[in-house]
Design a protein that fits this description.
The complex is a heterotrimer of chains A (991), B (100) and C (417). By secondary structure, chain A is an alpha+beta fold. Chain A has 24 helices and 55 strands. Among the domains of chain A are: 154 residues, Ubiquitin-like (UB roll), CATH 3.10.20.440; 226 residues, FAD/NAD(P)-binding domain, CATH 3.50.50; 93 residues, FAD/NAD(P)-binding domain, CATH 3.50.50; 62 residues, Orthogonal Bundle (Arc Repressor Mutant, subunit A), CATH 1.10.10; 98 residues, Beta Barrel (Elongation Factor Tu (Ef-tu), domain 3), CATH 2.40.30. Chain A is 21% helix and 28% strand. In chain A, the strands form 14 sheets. In chain A, strands 45-46-47-48-44-38-49 form a seven-stranded mixed beta sheet. A six-stranded antiparallel beta sheet of chain A has the order 51-52-53-50-55-54. The mean pLDDT of chain A is 95. In chain B, a hairpin with a 7-residue loop joins β4 and β5. Chain B has one domain: 2-Layer Sandwich (Folate-binding fold). In chain B, strands 3-4-5-6 form a four-stranded antiparallel beta sheet. In chain B, strands 1-2 form a two-stranded antiparallel sheet. Chain C is an alpha/beta fold. In chain C, β14 and β15 form a beta hairpin. In chain C, α2 packs parallel to α7, α2 packs across α10 and α3 crosses α10. The longest helix of chain C is centred in the first third of the chain and has 17 residues. The N and C termini of chain C lie far apart (59 Å). Chains in contact: A-B, A-C, B-C. At the A-B interface, α20 of A face α1 of B.
C-alpha cells in the first residue's frame, strides 16, 4: 500500500520490505525508512494528539526537531519508550508503535473537547481558577488536570535493557556529519591527532542525503559523501559515530555523547547495551550542527498534512516518499521553492506557491513557471480545513497592510511551509559562547567563543553548500576549496513569521509551539498581562517547554513577543539553552552505576566467615558489618541477649577491622597529635594507649578512638568506622596548609590490618598460647598497653583495650591473615564457649559502660563538656583544633544539652532511640522538649533497660525525673550516671 | 566537569580527581586564645564569596593528595592559575595577565 | 484589578481575552520609598506583599537585577515540607506551611499547592534512628510526620523498589502528609500581582550597584542601574547574590554560593503520586501536574555563580533515581539547569537585622528556600516593620556564628559511625 512511494527515488532499500504495526494496523515500509516516512508512504498523516487541546496532529519535521509525531515505541514489557519522535524511529521488521495522549482512540479522542472549549484554557488559565472550594484542589481539580496532562504512557515495569557509560578520547571532536562536519573531518584526518565525528542520525551526511541535485567536485552529492565517508573509515585517527547525539557541552571542552545501539535492531538481534554515554574532552570542538527550518504561523498550521518544506524534501529525496499528491507551498523564504520543485519533478502536483513576501526572486519564479506552477506573490494563508488531514488551504491577497477578506480556497492534501532557518546554536550556548542577532536571517548566530570551539556551516549562519564545505575544511585545519553546483542558491527573509490575516487575531488559532498548543494569541495575551521578559512569556505560555524544547518554535515566539511588546528582539531576551540537546535516557546517564555497582560495598577479610555463619549484616558507612549471629529460631533480641551474656561471662569475638586506622609518624608526631586531639600526647609512654578525642575547629566532637604509641615517633591512631577518610583529610589539611613545618607523615592503614577483638574474662587465656614475645600478665601488659609482636607467627599489633568493660584485647594482623587467625582463635576458643558477636552487642556492651558512639550519642552539636568528657582535654594545653571555640559564650552558657544516663521507672521498658524528653508530663502541644534519647538497649546482664540521653542541663539534674511522651503512653525515667555496669572498672582486672 | 592543573603533579586532570577545600589564604591564627569572639568567628565562618576572582583551595585527593591553591573566576568557572600552598597570593597584575 | 475566578475567565473568553489587565505594572523607580526590598524572588515579593497587607507599609519597591522570579524561585524542585528536627526550624518551616495552605485564596492566584505528601526514605540503621528522632520531635511540636514501614512506603509510592537486596535498601520512611509541592513561578507572580495591587512598585532589570550609608552608619538607600533610590529600610533577599549586596553595605557574611542542579524528564501520564526524598543516595523526585518527573540533584563542590553544573552530578543523580525507581530507567531527561544557592556554615538561614541600622537580611537558605517562601517573606516583613525579629526568626541571627548557638540540622542528621 505504498501509494505515496516514488519508485526508484530515495535511499531506502525498495527491495527490502519490512512490516510494522501502528495503533494495531499493519503496514509495509522499507529498510532505511523511519516510522514517519513509512507512515507517510502509506498515506497516514494523523499520528498523534497535542498536549493541551488534544488536536489531531501529523508529522511536522523529518528529524529530531519533530514536535508533533510522538509515539510510544513498544518492544514489550518494560521496553515501552514514550514520546519517541516517529521521524527518528528507524524502521525494522516487526516494529510496533502506538499513538499517545488520546482516549479511546487516535481518531476519536474524547478529550479533544478541550479543543472545543479552548477559549477557556488560554495561557495561564490555571492560575486564575480552580481555587474554590479550597479543598477541591487536592481532591478534584489536580487529579483531573494530571490525568489529562502527560503525554506518553508511564512506565509499568523495570527496563530489562542494559546501559553503559565510558570515556572517549580525541583531539578534535566534530559534532554533525553534514557537509561542513564531513569536510572538517576530512581535513582533520590529515593532521596529527585523533578525530571523532558524531551525528545524531543513523546515516551520516545531513543535508547531503536530501539534495541529490547538488554536485561537489564533479560528483553527485551522495557519491561525494560516500567517497568521503570511505576515506574517513580508512583513516586510522578517525572514529565515525552515527546514532550519537552530543547532548551537552560542559566546562573545559567536556561533552556528553549519547549513542543509541539497539533501538534500530530487530527483536532478538541486540547483543549488548541499549545505549552508551561517552564523556569526552577534546582540545578542539568543531560544531557543524546545521540549522532547523522554521514553521510559519497561520490559522490551522497544525493540521495533519501541514509540514516543513525541508521535511517534505527530505521525505522525498531520502526516503522516496511524496508527502502528498496535491501540495501547496506556503513560504516566506526562497528555500521552500526547491522542495516544491523536487516534488513537482516527482509527479506531485503543486497546487500553488503562496509566497507571503511582496517580491520574489525572478529566477525562482521562472523555475516555477517552467514547471507550470502558479506563484502567488504577496499572498497569505488565513485558514486550512480537513479533519484528520488537511484538505484545503484558504489564501488571500495582501495589499499593503490590508488582507483581502475574500480568499480563495485551494484543494490540497498537503501543505508545506518555510519560514526561514534557525541555526542550531544549542551546544555553542551550553558552552557559554555568546550570540548575536542577525537581522537578515532573523536569527541568533554565534559570536564570541568561551571555549576552544568553532561553529561552521549553517549553525554559524553561513548557508550554502560551498561555504559549509570550505569553513568546515578550514576549521579542520585544511585549506581545501570545493567546486560546488547547487540547484537553487537561495536567500531568504525569515522575519515574516506570522502571516497576516483579516480575521480577529484574538480568535485565530495559529500555533507557535505545536506540542504544547501555544498560539500566537497566547503570547500576545502574556504580553498584555505584563509578562515582558521572554523567560516570563515562556513560563507563562509554556512555549518552548515541550519535548522539542522549542527547536521549531523559539524564534517565532520571540518575534511575536517582540512585535507585541513593540521592542526589538534583542531587547526581549533569549531563553537559555540547556542540556540535553534531545531527551536522553535516564539509563544511559545512570550508566553502569546501578545495582551492585551503585556504590562500593567494603568487606573485611573476615566477612566471608560471618556470612557462612549466618550473620545478619548492616551497612555502616560504605562497609557492611555483621550485626548479630542468630542461631536457629532466634530473633535479634534473643541473639543479642545470648551474645551479650556469653561475652560478659566468658568470651566473645568481634570483627573490628572496619575501624579506621591512620599511622602518624615522624619526629614531630607527638606535637602534631597534641594539636589535632584534645588530649595530651607528649608524655604518653611508648607501648601505651590513650583514648583520643578529636574536635572540629567549631569545637564540636568530630571523632574518637584509641591511639597507641608504638615508638617515640610513631602513633597508631584508630578512628570511627565511618570517620576514617574525614579524619585523614582533616589531619592532612592542617599538616599541609597550617603546619608544614612539622615533620610528620600520615598513612591510611585501615585496609592493611584486620582487627579481631576478644572480650570477656577468658580473653587472656585464649590468646596467651598464640602470642610470642609479650608477657601478657596484668602488670607487664596492663590495660591500655600496646605491643608489636607475633601472633600465630604473624606480625601483629596487640592492644589491650576494651570497649565492653571486660578484659579485652584487639589483635591487628595483616589483613590477609585476618580470617585464618579468626578461625584459629575460634577453634581454640571453643573450650571457653567463644561466641561471635556483631555490632548490636558491641553497642549494648559499650552503652552499659557509658561509652559514647560518635554520631549516635553526639550529633555534630555536642562539645566534650556536653558529653561529660572534660577529662579528655589536656589541662595544660594552650591550643588544639577546636579549643578556642569551646570558649564561645553559647558553648559555656547554661542550658546546653548534656549526656546523661536514663533509668526507666519500669526496668522492663526499653526507651525508643530518638524519643524526646520533657520535664513535666502534662503539657499541651507544642511541648517544651529538653532533650532526646540517644542510645537505648535491653541489658540482659543487668536485667533492666539502659539508655543514654542528651538533656538540657543534664549534668546538674542527676536523680531528677523526666518523661518520655510516646504516642500511646508517657514513660517515666530518672536521670542517672552514664555508667550502668561495673562502675569501678574491676572487670578489666580479671586475672 | 572542569579540568584542573595540579601544581605538584604538573598535570591537567579532571575535577573528579580533586576535592574542593574552601577559600584560600585564611590562615589559622597563631594564638587563637588571644582572639575575641568576633575575630574567631570571622576566622571560622566569614567567607569572601565573590562574583569573579576567587582564591580557593583544592586537594588532589585521587592523585598526589596535596593541597594547593587556585585562582578561579566564579562567574565563568575558569581557572586562571593554580599554585602551591605557601606561595604568595598572586597579584592583581599577575591575575590580569594570566586571564588574558 | 480584575478578580480571578472561573466567572472572569469565562467572561474574558467571550471577549477573546483582550481585556485582561497587566498582572503587575512594570514600574520605574521613584526617588525614595519607605522600604526597598532587594531581590524579586518569592521571598522578596512576598515580603513586600506582607509589608503592605499586614503592616500597612505600602510605599515599597522591590528591585530586581533580572526578571522577577528568575532566580532560585524559578529553578527549584518545589518541595514544601516542615518536618525539621529542631524546634527553631520546625516552627519556621511550619509557619510557612500554614501560610502555603491558604495562599492561593489569599492572593487570588492559584499557586497550586498540592499536599500530596513528602516521603523521606531511610536506607540504614542510622537513618532509621535519625528519622525516629525527627518523628518524635515533630509529634511533640505538632508537626505531622509519621513512620512508614517499607511495605507502607511501597503502597504510598508504587514505583518504589523495596527489595532488601539493594545496595541501599529501603528500611522505612518518614511521611509528612500535608507537605507537597507548588507551582514555583505562580508563587512569584501571585505575590507580585497582589503586592502591586496594594501599591508596591516592582522594578525589574535594575541591578543594585551600591548601598549608601549615612554618617551615623544607617542605610540611606541603594545605588542602582536606574539611579539612586532612597530608603531608610532595606531588606535584602537576594539568595546566591546576598554576599555581594552585603559587601556593598560593608558587611562580610558567613555565606558561600554553590551551583545546584535540577532536571525534568519528558512528560508522561501520572505515575508518581507523591514526593520522595532520599538523603542517603541523593535523590529527590516528584511528578509535576504536566507529567514531568522533577528531580533534584546535589550541589557541585565549588563556589560559583555560573548557574551551570557538571554532567557527573546529573549522572550520579539519575543513577540514584534508577536505583530506587528502576522502572524509570527508560524515561528521558528533557532539560537540566543550575541555580546558585547560598549556604551558611550551619546550613540554616540568616533572617533578621544586621549590624547596619536599617539593613535587614534574609539569606542562607541553601537548598531549602522555596518551601519557606511565605514564612520567610512574612517574617522578613515583620522584622522590617517592627525593627525587631519575630519570635520565630529570632534564633536565626547573624550573631549565632559568633556566640556558637548554631542550628545545624545537617549535623543532627549526622553521619554513619
Amino acid at each position: 500500500m505504498n501509494n505515496f512511494r516514488r519508485v526508484g527515488r530515495g535511499r531506502v532499500n525498495q527491495n527490502a520490505p519490512v512490516e510494522f504495526t501502528f495503533d494495531g494496523a499493519t503496514y509495509q515500509g522499507y529498510e532505511g525508512d523511519t516510522l514517519a516516512s513509512a507512515l507517510l508512504a502509506n498515506g497516514v498523516h494523523l499520528v498523534g494528539r497535542s498536549f493541551k487541546y488534544h488536536r489531531p496532529r501529523g508529522i511536522l519535521a523529518a528529524g529530531s526537531d519533530e514536535a508533533n509525531a510522538l509515539v510510544a515505541f513498544d518492544r514489550g514489557p518494560g521496553r515501552v519508550t514514550p514520546n519517541v519522535r516517529a521521524t527518528t524511529l528507524e524502521l525494522f521488521d516487526g516494529l510496533t508503535a502506538q499513538s499517545q495522549n488520546n482516549w479511546p482512540s487516535l481518531k476519536f479522542d474524547v478529550t479533544s473537547l478541550n479543543d472545543v472549549f479552548s477559549a477557556f484554557f488560554p495561557a495561564g488559565f490555571y492560575n486564575k481558577t480552580f481555587m474554590w472550594p479550597k479543598s477541591f484542589w487536592d481532591k478534584v481539580y489536580e487529579p483531573v488536570i494530571r490525568a489529562t496532562a502527560g503525554l506518553g504512557p508511564a512506565p509499568k515495569a523495570e527496563d530489562p535493557d542494559k546501559y553503559e557509560a565510558c570515556y572517549a578520547h580525541c583531539e578534535t571532536l566534530i559534532v554533525g556529519a553534514g557537509p561542513a562536519g564531513v569536510a572538517a573531518a576530512l581535513a582533520a584526518a590529515k593532521q596529527a591527532g585523533r578525530v571523532i565525528l558524531v551525528d545524531e542520525q543513523a546515516e551520516p551526511g545531513g543535508s547531503l542525503l536530501s539534495t541529490p541535485e547538488a554536485m561537489i567536485d564533479g560528483l553527485p552529492a551522495a557519491d561525494w559523501l560516500a567517497r568521503s565517508l570511505d576515506e574517513l573509515e580508512k583513516a586510522e585517527n578517525v572514529t565515525l559515530m552515527p546514532r550519537t547525539t552530543a547532548i551537552g557541552y560542559y566546562h573545559d571542552n567536556f561533552l556528553g555523547l549519547a549513542e543509541r545501539l539497539t533501538d534500530h535492531l530487530k527483536d532478538g538481534e541486540a547483543d549488548g547495551p541499549r545505549e552508551r554515554l561517552y564523556r569526552v574532552w577534546a582540545k578542539k570542538i568543531i560544531l557543524a550542527t546545521g540549522a532547523i527550518e522554521r514553521p510559519l504561523v497561520f490559522a490551522g498550521n497544525d493540521r495533519p498534512g501541514v509540514m516543513l518544506a525541508s521535511a517534505a524534501q527530505t521525505f522525498l529525496n531520502r526516503y522516496g516518499v511524496a508527502v502528498g499528491e496535491r501540495i501547496a507551498l506556503v513560504t516566506s523564504h526562497d528555500s521552500g521553492y526547491q522542495a516544491a520543485f523536487d516534488l513537482a519533478d516527482a509527479n506531485s502536483q503543486i497546487v500553488s506557491i503562496i509566497d507571503c513576501r511582496p517580491q520574489v526572486d525572478e529566477n525562482l519564479q521562472a523555475e516555477a513557471e517552467k514547471r507550470g506552477i502558479e506563484v502567488r506573490v504577496g499572498w497569505t494563508v488565513t485558514a486550512t480545513a480537513g479533519r484528520h488531514r488537511v484538505s484545503s488551504v484558504t489564501t488571500n491577497k495582501v495589499n499593503g497592510d490590508q488582507v483581502d477578506p475574500k480568499g480563495e480556497t485551494l484543494s490540497c492534501d498537503a501543505v508545506i511551509m518555510s519560514g526561514g532557518w534557525t541555526p542550531s546554536v544549542h551546544l555553542w550556548s551550553h558552552s557559554k559562547g555568546s550570540l548575536k542577532w542577525r537581522e537578515d536571517l532573523a536569527a541568533y548566530v554565534p559570536d564570541q567563543a568561551n571555549e576552544n570551539a568553532v561553529c561552521v556551516g549553517a549553525c554559524n549562519g553561513d548557508f550554502g553548500l560551498g561555504v559549509a564545505l570550505e569553513t568546515g575544511a578550514n576549521a579542520g585545519g585544511g585549506n581545501d576549496s570545493f567546486e560546488v553546483v547547487e540547484p537553487a542558491p537561495w536567500t531568504g527573509d525569515g522575519a515574516l513569521e506570522i502571516l497576516p490575516t483579516h480575521r480577529d487575531e484574538s480568535r485565530v488559532k495559529a500555533f507557535v509551539d505545536f506540542q504544547n498548543d501555544v498560539t500566537a494569541k497566547d503570547i500576545r495575551l502574556a504580553v498584555r498581562e505584563g509578562f515582558k521578559s521572554i523567560e516570563h512569556i515562556k513560563r507563562y505560555t509554556t512555549t518552548g517547554m515541550a519535548t522539542d524544547q522549542g527547536k521549531t518554535s523559539n524564534l517565532n515566539g520571540l518575534q511575536i513577543a517582540s512585535r507585541a511588546l513593540n521592542r526589538p528582539v534583542t531587547q526581549v531576551g533569549l531563553t537559555t539553552f540547556r542540556p540535553p540537546y534531545t531527551p536522553t535516557t535516564f539509563g544511559a546517564l545512570a550508566g553502569n552505576n546501578g545495582g551492585a555497582a551503585f556504590d562500593v560495598v567494603r568487606k573485611t577479610s573476615i566477612d566471608g566467615w560471618a556470612e557462612e555463619n549466618g550473620a545478619v549484616f548492616e551497612p555502616v558507612a560504605l562497609w557492611r558489618r555483621a550485626r548479630y549471629f542468630p542461631q536457629k529460631g532466634e530473633d535479634m533480641h534473643k541473639a543479642v541477649a545470648r551474645e551479650c551474656k556469653a561475652t560478659r561471662e566468658s568470651l566473645g569475638i568481634f570483627d573490628a577491622s572496619t575501624l579506621g586506622k591512620i599511622e602518624v609518624v615522624g619526629p614531630d608526631a607527638a606535637e602534631f597529635m597534641n594539636r589535632m586531639y584534645t588530649n595530651p600526647w607528649t608524655k604518653l609512654g611508648v607501648g601505651r594507649c590513650r583514648y583520643g578525642l578529636m574536635l572540629g575547629e567549631d569545637g564540636y566532637i568530630m571523632d574518637d578512638g584509641v591511639i597507641g604509641r608504638l615508638a617515640e615517633d610513631r602513633f597508631h591512631v584508630t578512628t570511627t568506622t565511618g570517620g576514617a577518610p574525614r579524619v585523614l583529610a582533616h589531619m592532612e589539611d592542617y599538616l599541609q596548609t597550617e603546619w608544614p613545618d612539622l615533620d610528620v607523615w600520615l598513612t591510611s592503614i585501615t585496609e592493611q590490618w584486620a582487627v579481631i577483638a576478644l572480650n570477656g574474662p577468658n580473653a587472656r587465656k585464649l590468646i596467651e598460647p598464640f602470642v610470642e614475645g609479650v608477657d601478657l600478665s596484668p602488670d607487664a601488659f596492663p590495660h591500655m598497653a600496646v605491643r608489636e609482636c607475633k601472633v600465630c607467627g604473624v606480625d601483629a599489633r596487640l592492644f589491650r583495650v576494651s570497649f565492653s568493660g571486660e578484659l579485652g584485647f584487639e589483635i591487628n594482623v595483616p589483613a590477609h591473615y585476618g580470617r585464618a587467625l579468626w578461625e584459629m582463635l575460634y577453634e581454640a576458643g571453643k573450650q571457653y564457649d567463644i561466641t561471635p558477636y556483631g555490632t548490636e552487642v558491641m553497642h549494648v556492651l559499650r552503652a552499659e559502660k557509658g561509652f559514647i558512639i560518635v554520631g549516635q550519642d553526639t550529633d555534630g552539636t555536642v562539645t566534650p563538656y556536653d558529653a561529660g568528657m572534660s577529662w579528655a582535654i589536656g589541662k595544660k594545653k594552650t591550643d588544639f583544633v577546636g579549643m578556642r571555640s569551646l570558649a564561645r559564650p553559647d558553648i559555656v552558657a547554661e542550658g546546653r544539652k548534656q549526656l546523661v544516663g536514663l533509668k526507666t521507672s519500669d526496668p522492663k521498658t526499653v526507651l525508643e532511640e530518638g524519643a524526646q524528653i520533657v520535664m513535666t508530663p502534662d503539657q499541651p502541644i507544642p511541648m517544651d522538649m529538653v532533650g532526646h534519647v540517644t542510645s537505648s538497649y535491653w541489658s540482659e546482664t543487668l536485667g533492666c533497660s539502659v539508655a543514654l540521653a542528651l538533656v538540657a542541663n543534664g549534668h546538674a539534674l542527676k536523680g531528677e525525673t523526666i518523661y518520655v511522651p510516646m504516642p500511646d503512653k508517657m514513660i517515666k525515667a530518672e536521670i542517672v550516671e552514664t555508667i550502668f555496669y561495673d562502675k569501678q572498672g574491676e572487670r578489666l582486672n580479671v586475672i | 566537569m572542569m579540568m584542573i592543573e595540579c601544581p605538584i603533579c604538573n598535570e591537567k586532570r579532571p575535577e573528579l580527581e580533586f576535592r574542593y577545600a574552601g577559600e584560600a589564604h585564611i590562615a589559622r591564627p597563631e594564638n587563637p586564645s588571644a582572639l575575641s569572639d568576633d575575630e574567631w568567628a570571622k576566622y571560622l565562618f566569614i567567607r569572601n564569596n565573590p562574583r569573579g576572582t576567587h582564591f580557593e583551595r583544592w586537594v588532589h585527593a585521587h592523585g598526589c593528595a596535596k593541597f594547593f591553591n587556585a585562582v578561579r573566576d566564579t562567574v565563568s568557572d575558569k581557572f586562571v592559575m593554580t599554585y602551591k600552598c605557601g606561595e604568595q597570593r598572586p597579584s592583581p597584575e599577575t591575575i590580569a595577565e594570566r586571564s588574558s | 484589578m480584575i478578580r480571578y475566578s472561573a466567572r472572569s475567565l469565562f467572561a474574558n473568553a467571550l471577549s477573546g481575552h483582550k481585556n485582561w489587565p497587566e498582572q503587575w505594572p512594570d514600574a520605574q523607580p521613584k526617588s525614595a520609598y519607605d522600604v526597598v526590598i532587594v531581590g524579586a524572588g518569592g521571598h522578596g515579593l512576598g515580603a513586600a506583599y506582607y509589608l503592605a497587607s499586614k503592616y500597612g507599609i505600602t510605599n515599597v519597591a522591590v528591585i530586581e537585577k533580572g526578571w522577577l522570579g528568575g532566580g532560585n524561585t524559578g529553578r527549584n524542585t518545589t518541595i514544601i515540607r516542615s518536618n525539621y528536627l529542631y524546634d527553631e526550624s520546625a516552627r519556621l518551616y511550619d509557619h510557612a506551611v500554614d501560610l502555603w495552605d491558604g495562599l492561593s485564596q489569599e492572593l487570588n492566584y492559584n499557586v497550586m499547592f498540592s499536599k500530596r505528601g513528602v516521603l523521606m526514605l531511610a536506607h540504614n540503621v542510622h537513618d532509621v534512628q535519625s528519622f525516629q528522632r525527627h518523628i518524635h520531635a515533630n509529634r511533640l511540636n505538632g508537626v505531622d510526620n509519621k513512620w512508614m514501614t517499607p511495605e507502607e512506603c511501597k503502597a504510598f509510592c508504587p514505583p518504589l523498589d523495596i527489595s532488601s537486596a539493594k545496595r541501599y535498601p529501603v528500611m522505612g520512611g518518614a511521611l509528612q502528609q500535608r507537605a507537597g509541592v507548588a507551582r514555583h513561578d505562580s508563587v512569584a507572580w501571585g505575590y507580585a500581582r497582589a503586592a502591586a495591587k496594594l501599591g508596591v512598585d516592582i522594578i525589574q532589570n535594575c541591578a543594585v550597584t551600591g548601598v549608601r550609608r549615612g554618617a551615623d552608619g544607617a542605610v540611606e538607600g541603594v545605588e542602582t542601574e536606574k539611579g539612586f533610590i532612597g530608603a531608610k529600610k532595606i531588606g535584602v533577599s537576594a539568595a546566591g547574590n546576598s554576599s555581594i549586596i552585603m559587601n556593598m553595605a560593608g558587611l562580610d557574611f558567613p555565606l558561600e554560593s554553590y551551583p545546584l542542579q535540577a532536571l525534568v524528564s519528558e512528560p508522561v501520564k501520572p505515575i508518581f503520586p507523591c514526593v520522595v526524598m532520599s538523603n542517603s543516595v541523593h535523590a529527590y523526585i516528584s511528578q509535576s501536574d504536566k507529567g514531568e518527573l522533577v528531580i533534584g540533584a546535589g550541589t557541585d563542590q565549588y563556589v560559583s555563580y555560573s548557574q551551570r553544573g557538571a554532567l557527573h552530578i546529573v549522572e550520579h543523580t539519575l543513577a540514584a533515581i534508577c536505583e530506587i525507581f528502576p522502572i524509570f530507567k527508560r524515561m528521558r531527561m528533557l532539560r537540566s539547569w543550575g541555580g546558585v544557592v547560598d549556604v551558611t556554615p550551619d546550613r540554616s538561614c540568616i533572617l533578621g537585622r544586621t549590624p547596619v541600622p536599617g539593613l535587614y537580611v534574609n539569606c542562607g537558605w541553601g537548598t531549602g528556600g522555596f518551601k519557606a517562601t511565605p514564612g520567610a517573606a512574612d517574617l522578613l516583613a515583620y522584622t522590617i516593620a517592627k525593627d525587631e525579629p519575630h519570635p520565630i526568626n529570632a534564633p536565626f541571627t547573624l550573631e549565632r556564628f559568633t556566640t556558637g548557638r548554631l542550628i545545624d540540622e545537617a549535623a543532627a542528621a549526622a553521619v554513619a559511625h
